[in-house]
């Protein structure tokens, strides 16, 4: 209360009010995202004030769309979004878990228990759960040829929570194949090497994997070929446009002729560069019917395009920086920064290059490449929000596969892990803890059940029945999850429902930390809030 | 032709931009309108410099600004981020193709279109109908007739978003909203918070991606016209984008306008906020200036009481008002970039003095002093060539829109690039290009202070006043922008209904008058950030700046000051 002396305008919430503010915020956020979870969750359609539509079932996307103002909710949301940044999934679960931890704690705190004791219990339970997770995980041997089946199962589990089944199953293969395509032994997987490209197409919802690259622009010269087979690909970062360099910028010429001469000289430099490329083309393409494609990161101006077109070269300008890397990985060769010592070794190869035009949008497909280490997932959809939603799902799927490859382990899904961990905490850990911290462990254990409970709720099942059935099976030593269609227990191993190890670990790690921080708040001060209001 | 790509980052920047594009739209409309003043028919301006032609999926041809605009989520009001041109029938789009399960729909209350936007919309519908049916659409349009005066009034009282007074169609790639920031727009007011919210860097990448879309189309880009609202959290985003421009488009110069709305310079009440504001100004300025070729700070703390608005009656509280004046000046400055160069001797009778951005940069910042902070001056409206244009009054009429600069500075090394357009000669007719040139040269000849170098561009085409332009003219301004000797009785402020066009003069000036602006920033950086026990040391650390970074900034600023200060002293010594 001393703050009142210092700043009489400060608003102060005392201990219990502060705590309840935090708990309510956490519960509120939980309520918003609860319906998303699982394959029976609800998709949300947000229509903005100007009629813009956003469609999502992804916790991460929804959080970003919400204009959250409550400081507690922002804290939880930031944790959840960080969860997504790190592991690519689990945003909704994190929010649910934090909310449930707060909800469980509320019961005990209302009975007069000090939050500190609960927090101690959380800490013990967290450590025990993480240890349990290590024992519980199903190791997957990656080696040189990863087990495609298990990767597919993980991808399918994620995708089916975001898209309807047929679409999810179609994407499963695409996602797994694209990660395997970019995977290189002994190197971390860089998902940026999978390009995700979209096209708006009136009636078509379709997604396909292009082994190679799709660029979102085309050549800018009418005489260049729109389709070419057997192409050498030159990936370059060389300016092929005449720009007055600053030093010679046209101000201090004594007469017009001098200026003209200068312009010509500079133009000639650009032409020389173009010539070198044409020379290389003539070298590799003479005597056969191979084609030559230049994909340049810098600009190419019309005179240069003219020269290239006359030499039968297809040229694209201003390619994305990332595509330079991808091109080299997909087609081979190397990206050149200067045309001075071009050799045929710099060139990549593609069996087919063609242009596709949709209205004012142009796409260039570089396909039929040898041994690609980069690929493109091409999404077609009738409108932006559909495309955006599929994109989100694809991204999640890619992350799930990547995590599996890197974790070399998976976790049984459908709520099996949560129920097992809860039983472990209640039956074994709790006994080893002395004093009231036991209650903290218990609260933690019950909070874990939020995942199977919510899955059941979203499927229209009775949560109590489900939990009893599941814990019963677990007590008999059967590790089971929830069949969301029947409400009966199922064996996730048999059904192929697997979650990511790293995602689960991250949730267990970060959830209690935030919940503990929020529980330990005993005063909320809004200093000088009123001073900002105009009087 | 040399294309320009425009960027608008931040809310006030978009207010300015919205007016700017309204002028362009008006010029385009007047050029086609058979009833318009012939001066608009032959503008000698190439609009393709700013605009791109495109085509929708249905094959309709479009002509849209080459623009990327960034603002906070929800700042677009009733305008959709995709614009309207490329919209397909929205009834089919609400089908959900990707999910078989339950759907919940949350519909935000639709933003009501104001009268002005309503009438635009109706006009378009009528046009569509006449195109479709060929005849007999006139009867329908009468029903929804809205009087111009009502539209103007509704704009005067009710502009909330910059889209409320925009009559331009934008390309779907143009408008980008930042989502997921979770900050109160009021608190999005310093470098630190902006940097924190953007830490993932995805937004910067998205903006660069959209920029690439427009640049890829350009055969020969002359540069970027970048308007940033640097009063708050948008600066770090602008810095991100500028960095990527510097990387990707090395030779394309950036002309950066750092604009500020009227509210941003209000004196904050608490000491802490004051320190934060000062540090923000210093940090943001030094970061932005290090990444562009020419930076022009624009935005007076109180535009209404400044000399620049001698003939204007502006309400400082309304961004709608202030941005109009700044936009008009930016429009004038941009004219030479789109004039058709005809060669050194041949001059068109409509326009002369074409320059490109890089040439302007070269004139102002490329020579001896290399000072890259320019002052923006405007005369709105510029007086007619008779009488008081001669002599001292030329400089007297051009008043600065750049804050914190010294007045009456004698700087023999100052450099200028001036544009006069639509100037009126004696008797109210438009002065010819050569008349204007002669008068300006004469004025400089007779003037006491004379710049070392002045580039003059002249155009005959005045600034058209579009309908959604606010009523900010005082009662001494006539229908064609002429200055009256007796005030018009009755209305204190006059707007688009009374005034159709005005002559303008604007100038970019590189002068030591900018010294106080630089010194203030260096001073606050030192006293609040670097000095031992500085009140803001902790704050800048939280913003993510190490001490040596601050010292680097300080050094950069003092170098800027040194080039200006030292040279002018030396030259005055030698006199």
UniProtKB/TrEMBL annotation, chain A:
Any one of the GO CC terms: cytoplasm
SUPFAM superfamilies xrefs: GroEL apical domain-like, GroEL equatorial domain-like, GroEL-intermediate domain like
Gene3D superfamilies, per database record: GroEL, GroEL-like equatorial domain, TCP-1-like chaperonin intermediate domain
InterPro entries, per the entry: Chap_CCT_zeta (IPR012722), Chaperone_TCP-1 (IPR017998), Chaperonin_TCP-1_CS (IPR002194), Cpn60/GroEL/TCP-1 (IPR002423), GroEL-like_apical_dom_sf (IPR027409), GROEL-like_equatorial_sf (IPR027413), TCP-1-like_intermed_sf (IPR027410)
Localization per Swiss-Prot or TrEMBL: Cytoplasm
Superkingdom classification of source: Eukaryota
Principal location listed in the UniProt entry: cytoplasm
GO-annotated molecular function: ATP binding; ATP hydrolysis activity; ATP-dependent protein folding chaperone; unfolded protein binding
Pfam families: Cpn60_TCP1
Keywords: ATP-binding, Chaperone, Cytoplasm, Nucleotide-binding
Assembly notes: Heterooligomeric complex of about 850 to 900 kDa that forms two stacked rings, 12 to 16 nm in diameter.
PANTHER family membership: CHAPERONIN
Role played: Molecular chaperone; assists the folding of proteins upon ATP hydrolysis. Known to play a role, in vitro, in the folding of actin and tubulin.
Family note: Belongs to the TCP-1 chaperonin family.
Name of the protein this chain belongs to: T-complex protein 1 subunit zeta
Organism: Malus baccata (Siberian crab apple)
Classification of source organism: Eukaryota, Viridiplantae, Streptophyta, Embryophyta, Tracheophyta
TrEMBL record, chain B:
CDD domains linked: misato
Keyword Cytoplasm: yes
Residues in DML1/Misato tubulin domain copies: 157-338
Signal peptide: none
Domain Misato Segment II tubulin-like: from-to ranges: 2-121
InterPro entries xref list: Beta-tubulin_BS, DML1/Misato, DML1/Misato_tubulin, Misato_II_tubulin-like, Tubulin/FtsZ_GTPase_sf
A GO CC annotation given for this chain: cytoskeleton
Keyword Transmembrane set for record: no
Keywords: Cytoplasm, Cytoskeleton, Mitochondrion
GO biological process: mitochondrion organization
Subcellular localization(s) per the UniProt record: Cytoplasm, Cytoskeleton; Mitochondrion
Family: Belongs to the misato family.
Protein name: Misato Segment II tubulin-like domain-containing protein
Species whose genome carries this gene: Malus baccata
Lineage: Eukaryota, Viridiplantae, Streptophyta, Embryophyta, Tracheophyta
């Amino acid at each position: 209360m001393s703050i009142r002396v210092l700043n009489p305008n400060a608003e102060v919430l005392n201990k219990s009010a502060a705590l309840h503010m935090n708990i309510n915020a956490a519960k509120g956020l939980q309520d918003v995202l609860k319906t998303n979870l699982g394959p029976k969750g609800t998709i949300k359609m947000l229509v903005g004030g100007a009629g813009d539509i956003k469609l999502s079932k992804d916790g991460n996307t929804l959080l970003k769309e919400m204009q959250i103002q409550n400081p507690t909710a922002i804290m939880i949301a930031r944790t959840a979004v960080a969860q997504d940044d790190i592991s690519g999934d689990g945003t909704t679960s994190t929010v649910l878990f934090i909310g449930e931890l707060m909800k469980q704690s509320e019961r005990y705190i209302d009975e007069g228990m000090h939050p500190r004791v609960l927090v101690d219990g959380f800490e013990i339970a967290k450590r025990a759960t993480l240890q349990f997770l290590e024992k519980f995980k199903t190791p997957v041997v990656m080696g040189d040829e990863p087990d495609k089946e298990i990767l597919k199962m993980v991808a399918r589990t994620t995708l089916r929570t975001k898209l309807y089944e047929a679409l999810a199953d179609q994407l499963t293969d695409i996602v797994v194949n694209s990660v395997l395509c970019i995977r290189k032994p002994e190197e971390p997987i860089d998902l940026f090497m999978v390009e995700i490209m979209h096209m708006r197409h009136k009636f078509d919802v379709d997604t396909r994997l292009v082994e190679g690259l799709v660029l979102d622009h085309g050549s800018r010269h009418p005489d260049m070929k729109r389709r070419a087979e057997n192409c050498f690909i030159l990936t370059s970062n060389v300016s092929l446009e005449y720009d007055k360099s600053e030093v010679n910028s046209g101000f201090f010429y004594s007469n017009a002729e001098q200026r003209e001469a200068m312009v010509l000289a500079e133009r000639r430099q650009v032409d020389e560069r173009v010539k070198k490329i044409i020379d290389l083309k003539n070298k590799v393409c003479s005597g056969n019917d191979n084609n030559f494609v230049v994909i340049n990161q810098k600009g190419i101006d019309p005179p240069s395009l003219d020269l290239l077109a006359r030499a039968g070269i297809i040229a694209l300008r201003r390619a994305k920086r990332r595509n330079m890397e991808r091109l080299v990985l997909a087609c081979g060769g190397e990206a050149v920064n200067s045309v001075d010592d071009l050799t045929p070794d710099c060139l990549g190869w593609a069996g087919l290059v063609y242009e596709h035009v949709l209205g004012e949008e142009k796409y260039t497909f570089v396909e039929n490449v040898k041994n690609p280490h980069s690929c493109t997932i091409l999404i077609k959809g009738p409108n932006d929000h559909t495309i955006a939603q599929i994109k989100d799902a694809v991204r999640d799927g890619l992350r799930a596969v990547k995590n599996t490859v890197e974790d070399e382990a998976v976790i049984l899904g459908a709520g099996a892990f949560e129920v097992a961990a809860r039983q472990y905490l209640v039956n074994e850990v709790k006994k080893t803890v002395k004093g009231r911290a036991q209650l903290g462990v218990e609260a933690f254990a019950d909070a874990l059940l939020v995942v199977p409970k919510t899955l059941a709720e979203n499927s229209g099942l009775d949560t109590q029945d489900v939990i009893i059935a599941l814990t019963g099976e677990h007590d008999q030593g059967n590790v089971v999850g929830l069949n969301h269609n029947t409400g009966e227990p199922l064996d996730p191993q048999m059904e192929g429902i697997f979650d990511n190890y790293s995602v689960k670990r991250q949730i267990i790690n970060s959830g209690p930390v935030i919940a503990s921080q929020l529980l330990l708040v005993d005063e909320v001060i809004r200093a000088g809030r009123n001073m900002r209001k105009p009087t | 032709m040399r294309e320009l790509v425009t960027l608008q980052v931040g809310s006030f920047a978009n207010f300015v931009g919205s007016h700017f594009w309204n002028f362009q739209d008006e010029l385009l409309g007047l050029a086609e309108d058979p009833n318009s003043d012939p001066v608009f028919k032959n503008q000698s301006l190439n609009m393709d410099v700013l605009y791109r032609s495109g085509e929708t999926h249905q094959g309709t041809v479009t002509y849209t600004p080459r623009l990327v605009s960034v603002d906070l989520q929800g700042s677009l009001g009733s305008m959709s981020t995709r614009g309207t041109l490329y919209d397909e029938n929205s009834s089919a789009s609400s089908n959900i193709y990707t999910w078989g399960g339950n759907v919940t729909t949350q519909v935000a209350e639709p933003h009501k279109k104001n009268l002005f936007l309503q009438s635009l919309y109706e006009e378009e519908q009528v046009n569509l109908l006449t195109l479709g049916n060929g005849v007999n659409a006139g009867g329908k349009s009468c029903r929804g007739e809205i009087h111009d005066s009502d539209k103007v009034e509704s704009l005067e009282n009710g502009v909330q978003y910059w889209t409320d007074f925009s009559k331009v169609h934008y390309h779907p790639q143009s408008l980008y909203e930042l989502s997921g920031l979770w900050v109160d727009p009021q608190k999005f007011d310093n470098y630190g918070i902006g940097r924190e919210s953007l830490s993932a860097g995805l937004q910067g990448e998205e903006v660069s991606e959209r920029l690439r879309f427009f640049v890829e189309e350009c055969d020969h880009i002359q540069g970027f016209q970048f308007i940033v609202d640097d009063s708050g959290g948008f600066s770090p985003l602008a810095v991100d984008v500028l960095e990527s421009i510097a990387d990707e488009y090395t030779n394309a110069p950036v002309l950066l306008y750092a604009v500020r709305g009227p509210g941003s310079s209000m004196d904050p009440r608490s000491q802490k906020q004051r320190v934060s504001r000062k540090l923000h100004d210093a940090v943001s300025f030094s970061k932005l200036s290090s990444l562009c070729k020419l930076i022009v700070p624009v935005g007076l703390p109180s535009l209404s009481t400044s000399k620049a608005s001698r003939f204007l009656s502006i309400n400082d509280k309304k961004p709608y008002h202030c941005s109009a004046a700044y936009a008009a000046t930016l429009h004038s400055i941009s004219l030479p970039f789109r004039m058709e160069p005809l060669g050194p001797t041949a001059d068109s009778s409509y326009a002369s003095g074409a320059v490109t951005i890089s040439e302007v940069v070269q004139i102002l910042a490329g020579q001896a002093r290399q000072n890259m902070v320019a002052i923006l001056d405007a005369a709105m409206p510029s007086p007619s060539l008779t009488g008081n244009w001669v002599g001292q009054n030329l400089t007297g009429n051009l008043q600065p829109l750049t804050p914190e600069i010294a007045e009456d500075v004698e700087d023999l090394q100052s450099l200028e690039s001036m544009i006069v357009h639509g100037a009126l000669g004696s008797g109210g007719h438009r002065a010819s290009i050569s008349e204007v040139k002669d008068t300006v040269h004469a004025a400089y000849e007779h003037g006491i202070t004379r710049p070392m170098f002045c580039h003059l561009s002249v155009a005959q085409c005045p600034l058209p006043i579009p309908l959604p332009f606010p009523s900010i003219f005082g009662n001494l301004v006539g229908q064609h922008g002429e200055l009256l000797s007796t005030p018009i009785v009755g209305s204190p402020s006059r707007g688009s209904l009374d005034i159709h066009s005005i002559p303008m003069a604007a100038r970019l000036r590189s002068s030591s008058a900018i010294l106080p602006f630089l010194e203030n920033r260096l001073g606050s950086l030192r006293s609040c950030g670097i000095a031992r026990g500085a009140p803001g040391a902790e704050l800048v650390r939280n913003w993510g700046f190490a001490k040596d970074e601050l010292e680097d900034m300080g050094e950069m600023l003092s170098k800027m000051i040194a080039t200006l200060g030292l040279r002018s002293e030396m030259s005055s010594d030698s006199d």
